[in-house]
Design goal:
By secondary structure, the protein is α+β, with helices and mostly antiparallel strands. It has 2 domains: about 100 residues, no CATH class; about 90 residues, no CATH class. The chain contains 7 helices and 7 strands. Strands 1, 2, 3, 4 and 5 form a 5-stranded antiparallel β-sheet that branches. A hairpin with a 4-residue loop joins strand 6 and strand 7.
Length: about 210
């Protein structure tokens, strides 16, 4: 943080909770608990304050706290930032800006689900080719989510779930002189969903 401030680089970082930080949000946490007791749903209250550690920080900094109460109890979270509160108030700073980092990590995990980590050959080019295949597979599945899965139970499913439930179907393939017949397994549990997606994709006009 000190380096970022010296170099005029803004930062937004997670901050490990401690007793001093939790003491700062006693009232917001009590409010979140009251909201949870009233609605039965997870409740969160945002609060910000200026904070400085006793030894390790050279200056006081802006801290934003999420006082959240869940079924399992209190769930406080803290972030520290150099960003000004006017363009970035506490709640959008946490929910829209900071949480986007976690979503980015989910996209990286999806690449791993598509075997992007299988780069164990002795040659750079073959490893690079495998990464190309993984990236292409991710683009195809993302297009499938956007064009075919909207409004279905798999609209937000991860790549591994799509592979398992939608693409890995037992089938019998018969090749004749004029046609190739693909007979899908009659016991496939997502047959109706598969038909819905096929209908959606078939209605998209082809370009070119």
């Amino acid at each position: 943080m000190a380096w970022c401030e010296t170099e005029q680089v803004d930062y937004l970082l997670g901050l490990a909770k401690n007793e001093r930080l939790k003491a700062e949000i006693q009232n917001p946490m009590a409010k979140a608990e009251a909201l949870y007791r009233q609605s039965g749903q997870a409740a969160r209250v945002f609060h910000e304050f200026v904070y400085q550690t006793r030894e390790s920080w050279s200056r006081a900094r802006r801290v934003v706290a999420k006082a959240e109460y869940l079924e399992k109890g209190e769930n406080p979270r803290f972030i520290v930032t150099s960003l000004d509160p006017e363009p970035w108030p506490a709640q959008p700073l946490y929910e829209e800006h900071y949480c986007a980092r976690g979503d980015m990590e989910n996209r990286i995990k999806e690449q791993l689900m598509l075997f992007s980590d299988r780069t164990s050959t002795a040659y750079l080019r073959s490893n690079q080719l495998r990464l190309y295949f993984s990236s292409l597979a991710y683009v195809l599945l993302q297009s499938l989510r956007r064009l075919g899965l909207e409004g279905t139970e798999l609209a937000q499913a991860q790549c591994a779930t799509l592979r398992l439930k939608l693409l890995k179907i037992g089938a019998l393939i018969r090749i004749t002189v004029r046609k190739v017949w693909v007979s899908l397994a009659g016991g496939y549990p997502y047959a109706e969903l598969f038909r819905q997606i096929h209908t959606k994709l078939s209605a998209i006009p082809l370009k070119g």
